[in-house]
Amino acid sequence: MTVAILGGGISGLTLAWQLQKAGVAYDLFEAEATPGGCLRSVQHPAGYLLETGPNSLQLSDELLALLTELDLTNEIEDAAAVSKHRYVLRDGRYQELPGSPPSLLTNGFFSLKGKLNILRELLRPAAPVDPQETVAAFFRRRFSSEIVDYAVNPFISGIYAGDPEQLLVHKTFSKVAALEQQYGSVLRGLAKSGGGAGRRRIITLRHGIQTLTDTLAARLTNRHIGQPVRALLRTPEGLYQLKTATASPHTDTVYDAVVLALPTYAVAPLLRPLFAEAAAALDDVQYPPMAAVYTAYQRADVSHPLNGFGALNPKVEQPYAAGSIWTSSIFPGRAPAGQVLFTTFVGGAQYERHARQPEAAQKAAVHEELSRLYGIREGAQPVWQFRYYWERAIPQFDQHIGPAHAAADALQAHNIWSVANWRGGVGVPDCIRQALLVASKLMQQ
C-alpha cells in the first residue's frame, strides 16, 4: 500500500510518523515552507516567546507517548501551580470560577438561585437524545441560564471561538451529553465516572510548541514541503494521483489511499471534481476570524495579582475581547524580567466585527479593556504589543459539522480518509488521537 497525505500539520505529521514506523509507503505534501499547520512559536527579538496557535497542551497519554518517541520529554515545561485558578468577568470584575463540581456550591461565584438549580440537576430526568440540541440549550435545560451565561458562554467563546447557541452538544461535548443518558444526571455521571476528578496536566515545550512539529517533520523521510496539491485525480482502477503546483517526481505515483489532513475549505476544491456532494458539505463548515493581541506591561503598573491561568469574558458583560491568557503567570520566562504578558483573543463567532477591525484599533481597544479590568496604572502604556490574525480560526461544530462528518465517513469507502481538527476534535491531543486511529485502519488494509 502507498498513501498520499495532504497537509503537514500535527495530524498529517503524526499519521506519517506512524506509517513510517510500520514500514507503510507514504508521501506527505505540505503547501507551506514550514510544516506544523497552526502550531507556530515565535521568538521575538525583544525577549518574548509567543504561541500563535495553541498556547498550551493537555498532556494526554497519546501526546506523552509521542513526545517520548521523539526524545522530547526533557523539553516539557509544566504550567505553574497558579494555572489551576481560572477567572470569569462578572459584574465588571474578575471572580474565580469554581474548579470542581463540589465547589460549584461552596464558591461564591454563582447566586443562591443558581446553586439551587445546580442541585436540582441531580433530580431532572434525562431527555431523549436530540442530535440538533445546542450546547446552550443542553446546559440551560440541565442547569440554568446563569450557568450558560457565566460558565458555558465564556468557555465556548474562549476555547472554541464559538457561540454556545450554535454549537451542537453531541458534537462539542459528546462525553457530557452521554453522562445524561447513562446516569440520568450530568453531575451524578461525573461523580460516578471520575470525570470531575481534576484537570489534565497542562504543559508547553521549553522552546515553543512548534518544537513538536519541527521534530516530527525532521524525522520523516518522505515529506515534500512547499508542495501544494492542486488536483486529486482518480484512475479507472479507483486509485489516486496528484497534481502539485510545481514539477514533482511524484506526478506519476499511484496511491491506494489519500488522507486529507487539511481544513475543510482547502479540502473542498480538491474533492469537487470527483465527489461534488461531499465537497459541498465540507465547504459549509464555518471558521470564524480571530486575532491574538499580545500585550506586555511593566509588572509594577498592573495591580491585579494575575494568580491564575487567565480570565474569560462572558458575552452578557458586553466585552471587547473574549478573554486573556496570563502567559507570564503560566509559563514564567516568556517575557522579560519585570514584565507581564497577556495573550488576548479578539473575535470568534460572537465577536466577528471586532476580529476584522484594523490592527491599530484592536491594539488600542485591548489596551483600554486591560487597563480597566486589571487595574493598570493610569497613563501607563504597553511596553510592547503584537498582533497575529487568522481569517479562518477554529472549525465550528454547529449544524454544518454533521453533514461534513457524514461526507467524511462516506469517503472512507473510496479510501479517502480525513485527519484534521474538524474531524476528531479541535485540540492537539484530539488530532493526535484521530491520526493514530486512521493510521491503525490503514495498516490493517
Automatic annotation (TrEMBL):
NCBIfam families: proto_IX_ox. It is found in: Cytoplasm. The keyword Ligase does not apply. Involved in coproporphyrin-dependent heme b biosynthesis. Catalyzes the oxidation of coproporphyrinogen III to coproporphyrin III. This is Coproporphyrinogen III oxidase. Its cofactor is FAD. It catalyses: coproporphyrinogen III + 3 O2 = coproporphyrin III + 3 H2O2. Its EC number is 1.3.3.15.
